[in-house]
Amino acid sequence: MARKHSRGAAREEQLREDDEDAAPLAPCWLCGRPLGKTIVMHHPVPKSRGGRDVVPMHPICQQTLIANFSNAELQRHALDVEAILLNPDMRKFVDWVAKKDPDFHASTAKKKR
C-alpha cells in the first residue's frame, strides 16, 4: 500500500496549507473580544439541562458566568447574551474585561449560592 505522505516535509506543507485555509474563529460569545490561545467551548444551556449547543469563550468569561448563575438560570437565559448582561455583576465584568488582552487571566469570585 502506498503512503499518502512519503516524507515529513510534504506533511508539514499540507498542515501549513490547512492552517491558512482555516476560517478565523468567532469572537467570545459573552464579551465579544477576539479569542486568545486558550478557548473554552461552553454549553450556554448546561448539558445536565439538555443543552447541546456550544459557543467559544475565554476561560475567564466562562468562570465568571458560572460563578454568577445557577444551571437553572442559565437554562432560562439559553443563548440570549443580552439577558445575561442585564445582571449588574456580569455587565460590570464585561465592561472591565473589554480593555484586557485576549489571553488575560485572573482569579474569579466564588459562586454566590
How would you portray this structure in words?
With 113 residues, this protein is mainly alpha-helical. It has a domain at 28-97. The protein is 41% helix and 5% strand. The chain has helices spanning 8-21, 59-68, 71-77, 81-85, 88-97, and strands spanning 40-42, 55-57. It has a two-stranded antiparallel ribbon. The termini are far apart. 16% of the residues are buried.
SSE map:
Blueprint: H1 8-21, E1 40-42, E2 55-57, H2 59-68, H3 71-77, H4 81-85, H5 88-97
Helix pairs in contact: 2-5
List keywords for this structure.
113 residues; mainly alpha; 5 helices; globular
- Going across the biggest sheet, name each strand in turn: 1-2
Largest sheet: 2 strands, antiparallel
The N- and C-terminal alpha carbons lie at a distance of: 61 Å
Number of beta-strand segments: 2
SSE ordering: HEEHHHH
> In one word, what is the shape?
globular
Structural class: mainly alpha
What is the overall number of helices?
5
Could you estimate the helical fraction of the residues in percent?
40-55%
Q: What value does the Rg take, in angstroms?
A: 19 Å
The low-confidence parts are 8-21
* Global mean pLDDT: 80
Q: How much strand?
A: 5-15%
Brief rundown of the structure:
With 113 residues, the chain is mainly α.
